[in-house]
Amino acid sequence: MLDRNYLRRHADEVREALKTRGFDFDLDRYRALESRRRTLQEETETLQAERNARSKAIGRAKASGEDIAPLVTRVGDLGRRLDAARHEFQAVHQELEAFLETIPNLPDASVPEGADESDNLTLRTCGTHPLFDFQPRDHVDLAGPALDLEAAAKIAGARFVVMTGQVARMHRALTQFMLDVHTDAHGYEEVYVPYIVNAESLKGTGQLPKFEEDQFALAGDEGHYLIPTAETPVTNLVRGEILDPDALPLRFVAHTPCFRREAGNYGKDTRGIFRQHQFEKVELVQIVEPQASWEALEELTGHAEEILRRLELPYRAVALCGGDLGFSAAKTIDLEVWLPGQGRYREISSCSNFLDFQARRMMARFRDPDGGRPLFVHTLNGSGLAVGRTLIAVLENYQDGEGRVAVPDALQPYLPGVSHLTFDGNEPSA
How far apart are alpha carbons 373 and 393 in whole angstroms? Predict the structure, then answer.
């Protein structure tokens, strides 16, 4: 959520900044609500002060033996007016809060201008595309029955998968490899979190109320949802907390399934497992002091890149333009891996700095070292990486044209004795 004081002082600038991300900030409605809220607050405070003064006058009159009936009547009238003003103030306050919850974060000045992903800015390209003397196959054709989409459709419906045998084992190996790198090499604390969260948690990280239609709500339950990403439960670990500055930065890593309706992507990427209702990610979350968040974004992005480098997968880093920026992010760097089966780069991680936007929604703060009021932390997160998409990238980049996929050197310790996966009816090769 945006800083209310900043918004009151700089509403015009906020409107212009939000235009760069294609958001039409209804300035007239905001000013009308804010004006009404301020008027009602002043009226409530005036009535309260007057009632307090007259109540004291009743005490003095009673002590001196005066007739207090007229004063009591007056105080009673003030009480009724005060109750009505409070009720109206609360209604306007709630309407204003609901309005503010729909406003996205302000894009950082370094965010490129643009309307959609075609306007994103490539920052760097790493690794080289594999050279094939054959027509590369995509992951669906490569893995065949080991990616059983028909069985998943029978069990659950479209956009699910059943992985079997060596593909399931490779998926597990990738997960363990990512967790080990982030905990052992990068110093993240591994956490295991619930896969079901309450609505307050989704509001805290910005998925509600804006993206209600993308969430899987529990049937017959009031206010509980399957997590769309580990970002939600992990970041909410600090919701409502006042942290010791000596404890910062906090770095967490979590492996979870993720559940999304993908309502905004209907009909997109329907082949294979690239875009699923259920998928798995290894998520990185950092909680830092404000002055450290931009350096932390570079660090976190580098940690995600390290997985791609160790797997020797070609990729590029892309700064999202304003029109492609997520709701809560001030800046996002996407990592896009090369997929030979599609002949293009595709997103495998989004690394974002939210500044204090999520922290304000969650009331996540730290003690001011100088003894002032608690300050809001800054929050960041990124995939390190999306496991299913990494599986796709390994299958497609390491294929040999004969139905085999070489196991990357970095995964050899997780698949001992296996140098290749074979998908033309043979067992894995040692």
Answer: 48
The rounded distance, in Å, linking the Cα atoms of 34 and 32 is 6
Using alpha carbons, select from 362, 329, 353, 357 the residue that is nearest to residue 242: 362
Contact between 282 and 182 (Cβ < 8 Å): yes
C-beta separation of 180 from 306 below 8 A: no
* 260 counts as catalytic: yes
Which residue of the set 101, 310, 347, 367 is catalytic? 347
| Mean pLDDT in consecutive groups of 10 residues from the start of the chain, 430 residues | 95 96 96 96 89 76 72 77 91 95 97 96 97 96 95 96 96 98 98 98 95 92 93 98 97 97 70 95 98 98 98 98 97 98 97 98 95 95 98 98 95 95 62
Residue 349, beta-bridge partner list = 335
Q: Which residue out of 261, 389, 396, 404 is catalytically annotated?
A: 389
Q: Do 285 and 235 contact (CB within 8 A), yes or no?
A: yes
Evaluate whether 164 touches 144 at the Cβ level (below 8 Å): no
Q: Indicate which residue of 51, 137, 260, 361 is catalytic.
A: 260
Angle (deg, nearest 10), helices 69-100 and 27-63: 160
CATH superfamily entry for domain 26-100: Serine-tRNA synthetase, tRNA binding domain (1.10.287.40)
CATH topology of domain 117-422: BirA Bifunctional Protein; domain 2 (3.30.930)
From the CB of residue 24, how many other CB atoms can be counted at a distance below 10 Å?
8
Are residues 395 and 405 in contact, defined by beta-carbon separation less than 8 angstroms?
Answer: yes
Region label for 272, one of left (φ > 0), alpha (ψ between -120 and 50) or beta (otherwise): left
- The verdict on whether 389 is a catalytic residue reads yes
- Is residue 275 part of the annotated active site? The answer reads yes
Asked about 350 being catalytic, the answer comes back as yes
Per-residue pLDDT, 427? 47
Query: Of the residues 275, 316, 346, 367, which is catalytic?
Result: 275
Contact 163, 358 (CB under 8 A): no
Q: Where are the domains of the chain?
A: 26-100, 117-422
Q: Which two tokens stand for residue 321?
A: 């333009």
Tokens 């003894």 locate to 371
Catalytic residue among 293, 350, 352, 383: 350
Same fold flag, 26-100 and 117-422: no
State the Cα torsion 347-349-353-357 to the nearest 10°: 80
